[in-house]
Amino acid sequence: MxxxxxxxxxxxxxxxxxxxxxxxxxxxFQQAGVYVVSLVSSPGSGKTTFLEKTLTLLxxxxxxxxxxxxxxxxxxxARLARSHVPVRQITTGTLCHLxxxxxxxxxxxxxxxxxxxxxxxxxxxxxxxxxYDLGENxxxxxxxVTEGEDKPLKYPxxxxxxxxxxxxxxxxxxxxxxxxxxxxxxxxxVRPGMTVMEVSAKTGKGMYQWLNYITAILGPTQGQVFGPExxx
Amino acid sequence: xxxxxxxxxxxxxxxxxxxxxxxxxVEAIYLKIGVLSxxxxxxxxxxxxxxxxxxxxxxxxxxxxxxxISGYCSKCQxxxxxxxxxxxxxxxxxxxxxxxxxxxxxxLSALExx
Lengths: 232, 114
What we know:
A: 7-stranded parallel beta sheet, disordered C terminus, B: 2 helices
């Protein structure tokens, strides 16, 4: 028996298992005709309020459901359930991000073919969710004006894992002395060409642009067969 | 702080690979970690030590190669290094880079087996 060390090439993605589950999920979503949007942001940037407003405006048009990740409470799930769409809570315990397998098990007993649109609200965290594919079609990163202009510079990986950015709480821009030019310069320096929208879920300002974006992807009426555009 | 999850995934992967090769002892694990992967090297090294304490992996070394960010520059028409994560410009011509080619790696590249 030789005790000489030997190097063997492996070349495997460390998150191979997560990526495999995410790939399977994406396939299931596509087969069932459900479009999946995930939301990531730091805690308190307004994901739940943004989602509540979105549900109020979209849920009559599309068969919509929500999965919401939270470390310990079901407060967000309870808030979202007021929108009268199916909501399922994923309690992550001490885990600071959602993984594909959590999404998979949260979907058990749900018939995906009964849905057009599924939102997945990640745990409030701008670091860890960047590494985990959840099988979604669209990942949206949210930044609130109260967080300042340099958030994009501090969190490049999450910006690169997302497909688009939404600036929230723009009704507070003045009070927060938010400098939009600096924010956009920072964001474009980290991620040139990224789609960005500005909204206030509280006043409704800018929400139409976001809704048009989703409607353009899903098609205007319930049950319509969606085209390939906008899908991953 | 998801480095513990990452460390456990690395150990599971290393274990699978060593089993496939007749249960050889793993002396070292070689990783490639991109600057855009979202994993902090220092944190990973320290949790790896914690995760392997008093196990057969206690003496196993974790060797990490940092992978810098690079992208396709449409002006230079080739892969070029990028200035920094905070300035996604081609280091050669200053053009803004929208297509990242390297830097997302989170890979177990090799194992040293005995």
